[in-house]
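S1.2 Input.
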Amino acid sequence: MRVRRSHPPGARHRAHRSRAVAASPRRAVRATPGPSPRSALLSALAFGIGFLPQLFGSLLLGSLADRLPPRALIAGGYALECAAALLLALVRMPIAASLGLVALVALATPVFGGASSRLVAQWLKGDAYVLGRSLNNIASSGAQLFGLALGGAVVALLGPQRALAVSAALYLGCALAIRIRLPRLEPGEFGGTSGGARGGGGAVLASLRGAGLLLRGHPVRRLMLAQWLPPTFVAGAEGLIVAYAGGHHFAPGWYAVLMGCLPVGILVGDLLVGRLLRPPARERMVVPLIALTGLPLVGFVTEPGAGVSSCLLLLCGFGLAYGLGLQRPFLDALPQDGRGQAFGLLGSGSMTLQGVGPACFGTVAAGIGTGGAIALAGGAAVLTAGWILTWHAPTGS
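S1.3 Output.
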């Protein structure tokens, strides 16, 4: 936070981003009632439709994060979210059209996200960058918890359409704040490339070429996988929590407690690991923290009660702080003129896999039960820790 005065763009963007986390149109779309036999399917589609298209957006448009000024991209991203929420609030359209609109916004999300992450990396140097990422994770986890509680109350009080109008107003406020307070930076100032500097050609060809170069690079590829796989397995387990609680006849109040344990653990883990550990220690703790992410989930094979399940999920969330130990090696491995696309690809790949994870482990749960499927997800995370342990250096640097 003390870096704010000397490096205002990164701090300002993180502040505005944390305000907007709760405003996503997907939340109110999921709350829109449909025919009861289809409600579960529609809810799942509304949830996943905001994630899956991001990978295609990153592959086809990701180079724009390095080619265009960040202020225009970030403000434009919030403005696009505002327009989508406003359309959903004011225009009665078929469910397929509503989902298509959300998918269209998701297609462009990696460009805006890549530009903002690149800007933070440009302004925050050394360990300040890792601490800035930690602060961003803390703000996002807190905003998610706040948004889930407040968003549900707003939908219950105002209804989905009016709640979407509130969402639109919040996104408009963020777009205006970024447009007014973030300085206009030219490519030379924020480290990007102008026009066709990255090999020439249009945005799509440049994006495909850039993604290929990133994924063919061994250090970048394995560091991306290390940041993708454990959250995917945790998301698969998280998607089974409600079913696990229902199958074990937990009291209704425990559902919300169990769902909140992971983000609380993430918040505490990022706070303590980012604040108390020095950079070398954070990087040495990558493997132990990934193991801490998976081992509590393995404990679900014993079918624990509500209290023990809550403790296990808190520990699992705490272990996800391992990502802080990979931030510097990942940034160091990226080409200077491809950082925006790399950050967009990292985020979109993570979102896509976290959308696929619950479906995969939900299918497994149909055969072996929810407790066994959650334990299997934990075992996969532990195997990931073992794979990283085989690297020549603990963090791949």
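S1.4 Remarks. The chain is about 80% helix and 0% strand.
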